[in-house]
Amino acid sequence: MSSTFSSPSDPSKLPLKPLPGSYGLPFFGPIKDRLDYFYNQGRDKFFSTKIEKYKSTIFRTNMPPGPFISSDSRVIAVLDAISFQILFDTTKVEKRNIFLGTYMPSTGYTGGYRVCAYLDPSEPNHSLIKRFFISLLVSRHNTFIPLFRNTLSELFVELQDQISDKGEANLNDFCNTLAFNFVFRLFCDKNPADTKIGSKGPTMCDKWIAFHLAPLGTLGFPKLLTLLEDSLLRTLPFPSFLIKSDYKKLYDGIYTSATAALDQAERLGLKRDEACHNLLFMVCFNAYGGIKTFFPALLRWVGLAGENLHKQLADEIRTVVRHEGGVSFGALDKMTLTKSVVYEALRIEPPVPYQYGKAKEDLVLHSHDAAFQIKKGEMIFGFQPFATNDPKIFENPDEFVGHRFVGEGEKLLKYVYWSNGRETENPTAEDKQCPGKNLVVLVSRLIIVEFFLRYDTFKVEEAKELLASTINIKSLTKASSI
């Protein structure tokens, strides 16, 4: 699958244009944009309508939550694969306190600390904490594959039992349990069932994350109750004491279990308490939250792709496993179609759709066909699904193409941005790229491998519910040969 776009050899020759868009009247402009974003148009139409109106993928707009939670909702949206890259350059954009955009939840949600996600790389603690995360992942490198496979094997039994009993299995619940059990065992060296967390880890994490993200979401109320819902979610931030009990259980479970990890943090120079709150955020928000979001999306796209792709995946996976004598890093690296399928799912539906950065200096932003001046201090906002579905980079961007990144298609991986960085780059202590980026890719390949070692094909169905979509597996056809 080749690109349809060639970058200009000299972007400075692009015409410098006035930045289009408007913030509207104070207070009323942000409210109007917020209502359009959540209720009148919906997220994707909100952006596509403005692109069409301004004939530009870079423009001024407001982003939620707006009044009264956010004091300043003004952003410059960058919605193409070229301009989006500015958000990775921490020499030009600041990331201080903008993990969730134009507002920051109370530090009461994170034990009184500004955890790593809210720190800019220029702050000394950022590099210290991120080095801790990276060193922790390196120390557990040999554990990744056997631990994930073991966790997954335990849950496949439950999945099959549900389908036998009910005719379908809830994939979201399956992925939630898988994600929490795996990441907790990985970083804390203990089964969460053997701690005070018990089997309630996913539920406690979900509640805690929901309180963080409440001003950025909807409850699915009927249209007649739009204003009521909007006022409930975006008039005042929810106080952290509402979730204090669950957070304390998660904290205590990690503090008493992750002794080796916390010892490692202290050796690097971190206070044990601060390290534990940061580890909790990584385990429960970054790792669990990311995996529980992405796995259902990955399996939905693969499931809907149909039996032809399933046969090709099964053939590749079983052939490589036979030849390599098992599932290993080397075996996974030889599964070119399996890798491509994971990258394609990350491209078409990245698990974290938003990125923000505040200009550290006056800048010139480039899109495919124009340049725009940005002033120091202005907030830049990137909507990742538009950047990674850029039709000037990817042919048929709205289609899931399993082979997109096979062969020559690998050259397009530099435009896959799901991890707050390019897929072709690796995280360092000095950037804001997800420290677990390679782990996410690895376990995503593993879940595809384990599915097609066990099954020839499977069918999925998406059900719309009040707060979100639920993915159900309707059938599993056991492997005819291994």
Describe the 3D structure.
The chain is 46% helix and 11% strand. The protein has 482 residues and is α+β, with helices and mostly antiparallel strands. It has one domain: Orthogonal Bundle (Cytochrome p450), CATH 1.10.630. It has a 5-stranded mixed beta sheet with strand order 1-2-8-5-3. A 3-stranded antiparallel beta sheet has the order 4-10-9. Strands 6-7 form a two-stranded antiparallel ribbon. It is globular, with a radius of gyration of 22 Å. The two termini are 30 Å apart. The N terminus is likely disordered.
List the helices and strands and how they pair.
Blueprint: H1 28-40, H2 43-54, E1 58-62, E2 74-78, E3 93-94, H3 124-139, H4 144-166, E4 169-170, H5 171-188, H6 201-213, H7 226-234, H8 244-257, H9 259-268, H10 272-305, H11 307-324, H12 329-333, H13 336-348, E5 354-359, E6 363-366, E7 371-374, E8 379-383, H14 384-387, H15 437-454, E9 455-464, E10 469-478
Parallel strand pairs: 2-8
Antiparallel strand pairs: 1-2, 3-5, 4-10, 5-8, 6-7, 9-10
Helix pairs in contact: 1-2, 3-9, 4-5, 4-15, 5-10, 6-10, 8-10, 10-13, 10-15, 11-15, 13-15
**How can the largest sheet be summarized?**
5 strands, mixed
The fraction of residues in strands falls at: 5-15%
Radius of gyration: 22 Å
| CATH classification class | Mainly Alpha
Q: How many E strands? A: 10
Number of helices: 15
Question: Largest sheet, order of strands side by side?
Answer: 1-2-8-5-3
Quickly list its features.
Cytochrome p450; three-stranded antiparallel sheet; 10 strands; alpha+beta; 15 helices; 482 residues
